[in-house]
Amino acid sequence: MKSITPLSVIFWAFLAWSPALVGAQRTTIVNLASLPEWQVRESRNVSLNDVRQWGIQPLVDREYGVTKVEIRTYGKANQTLQAVVETTPDPSSAYGLLTFYQNESMKPGRGMKLAVIGPQQAMMARGAFFVRVMRPAKMPEENFRSALVAIGGAAPSRNSLALLPPSLPAQGIISGSHKYVLGPVAMKRAVPSIPPNLVGFQMGAELQTADYQLNGRPVTLVFISYPTSTIARIRFAEFQKGLDVNQKNGAGAIFGKIERSYVLLVQNAQTKEVAQRLMSRLSFEEQVSWDQRPPGKPVTVQMFELIIGNIILVLLLVGMAVLGGFLLFAARRMAARWFPHSDWARGYEDSIIRLNLK
Q1: If DSSP codes are grouped into helix, strand and coil, which group holds residue 61?
Q2: pLDDT tens digits, one per residue of 292-340
Q3: Contacts of 196 (CB under 8 A, 6+ apart)
Q4: How far apart are CA 59 and CA 64, in angstroms?
Q5: Which of 114, 214, 314, 330 reaches 20 to 30 Å from 47, CA-CA?
Q6: Separation of alpha carbons 212 and 276, rounded Å
Q7: DSSP of 221-245, one letter per residue?
Q8: Which H or E run contains 69?
């Protein structure tokens, strides 16, 4: 018994202290819990004209197909961030807005894709959304980058990235000069030296341009994609007529070539050899991809609405038939009252048809 008594004391002491140990464990978990992430505190829909102070050009954004604009306020503890979220038809349009508005003062976000950070704001393309986030003056860059990751993620989804146009060569490119253009308004600002009517955006053209540092001077590369090689040949002939492509050397000369369904142009190159060297960096691949799902409601919802619409149409037709029968009956009754001797009132049951046959 003497050897059992100390064990019993230890056992009962452990039971007595177990609530305190549990409480201490719980307290430790609360202290180590992570702080809440950035959450949307306020959101309101606005027009493109209402956000001009953010640097937005309404005509350009409409050309990229912006359908909705929101101003969102994100909050975390006592910190707040303001963002403008624009909804576009597809990931390539959001990507185009990102390239159009980026400039040399912006740098890619470390550890992020399709995101640039500038002194006053950051920009991200996430799926079909183009996001601008205003940068607080006293927020360190690392904290701001962490906030961007919390708001938009480190990168878009793989499906979104697969829908983007082919990238231009990265070697020698001047930061912030790459533009992806889908219409004449954006092109006038991105490539003012080339008339937009020569490109043929109405034929499905998509244009990319970037400045490269070659032999100590900037050279502009213009890469245009067309739906078919036939359209590309027609448009390249227009470039040759309108811009004298490959027809002169020296200042203002433009060199170019056609490759399958692509047209390449180089401006400000000292010689044709320099232009050829830049164009040779591009590799061309023909590929077939599935069309992306059209924007809007899911297919199941659209099918359900189609069925409901058909049912409503059938009910309307039945109702119109019943109403027509009722009106016909009422007309017969009124004719019998006001014109009792008319055929319409009496019908043709008791009438005799005479045939004057000779």
Answers
A1: helix
A2: 455 556 778 888 888 999 999 999 999 999 998 888 888 877 877 777 7
A3: 183, 184, 187, 188
A4: 9
A5: 114
A6: 13
A7: EEEEE-SSHHHHHHHHHHHHHHH-T
A8: strand 68-76
